Amino acid sequence: MRTHALSLAAALAALAQRPFPIEVVQVEGVKEYTAAAVIAASGLKPGQTGEPKVFDAARDRLLATGLFDSVGYRYAAGPSGKGYAVTFEVNELGQLLPFQLDRLPVSTADAKAHLRKSLPLYSDRIPATQQVLDRYRAAVQELVKGADEVRVKVQSDKPGELYISFQSASSPPVVAEVHFKGNKVLTEKALQAAVAGAAVGSQYSEERFREVLSLGLKPLYDARGRVRMRITGFEVAAASGGVKGLAVTAGIDEGESYSLGTVTVEGSAESAAVVKAADLKSGEVMNFDQVKLGQERIHILFRRNGYMKVASSISQKINDKEKTVDVTYQVEPGPQFLFGKLHVKGLDLHGEHEIRRLWTLQTGKLFNADYPQFFLNRIREEGIFDSLGDTKADFALDEGARVADVILTFKAEVKKPVKDPKDQ
Prior knowledge:
Number of domains: 5
Helix content: 25-40%
Number of strands: 17
Largest sheet: 4 strands, mixed
CATH class of the largest domain: Alpha Beta
CATH topology of the largest domain: Ubiquitin-like (UB roll)
Structural class: alpha/beta
Oligomer: single chain
Distance between the termini: 139 Å
Shape: elongated
Order of helices and strands: HEHEHEEEHEHEEEHHEEEHHEEEHHEE
């Protein structure tokens, strides 16, 4: 009986260790990547034999990608009861950075298409772990072949905005000249003046240079209704006249001229009066400089009615079919202030009395932010003081009481002494 019992126990143990096929593979915790891509990178496939060492190897392959803080797994009976259902629990790395190609003979767009095909786990944003950077760098190097040596660097062109640069290992070329072609509305001289400070002397990469030129040129074209202006491409050559550096020629598509469509206001019950204050005329050439001036005129209107904290933003809707741009001002008036007290500095009692006699804004009435400067201009124009020097109007706001005090500061004019003819 003892021998039979041992044989039965051994048989049960052997049966428990018998491998079963994998029926289902699942992933939990993915955000940046697809579950299908993670499963493919794990190497597990339905139908293959499953056992702990196989699952361990799959987990290790995922960890080796450098894309995850942690990877765990669990397994249970599959839907049929004749195999395993395996579930991976992944925790992706938190900081992911965009990447671009700089000074390489292929574009970032072409590189992304190549990487998407060649890498099992691809994303346009990647963590700056050594495993990931090495894998992406090797794939980019394969794409450019021996045309250039690829190196990788985490850098920033703007404060707080990091990105990963796959770039040529050779010294970066510097822009010595900027030229344009395709422009008719604006002269090359005007375009050069708009970008010279940021473009000339900078290191050249296509993406960064496109951004630099767009920032400099867009305001010029927006002021002329060319809201769809775009940079079509670049031609790069050695600078002329023996100057060390690059001559970069940017192609410009100036687009068609758009006109101003409708002007609307949100956030104010008196929208018609606010639109009138903006003083923009629908049908005229769209000029964003004038739209900004309209915003300033709206602020003046509100400040004249006691809204000392008024703020606003501008949104545009481009209608390509009609070639118009609709403009909307979103206004946040803030609290409305009343006039509090008048404070006068720099005058004697007689002068202060005269100022208070002429001042007409009454305590408790709506505060007009334009009135103090208007009052000082009137004092000067009417010549009330013989030797009036600098004058200044300041506000003191009590936001809790919603009261605005005014401080008028007067400074007597200092006359230069007349030289004695004997000293000349």
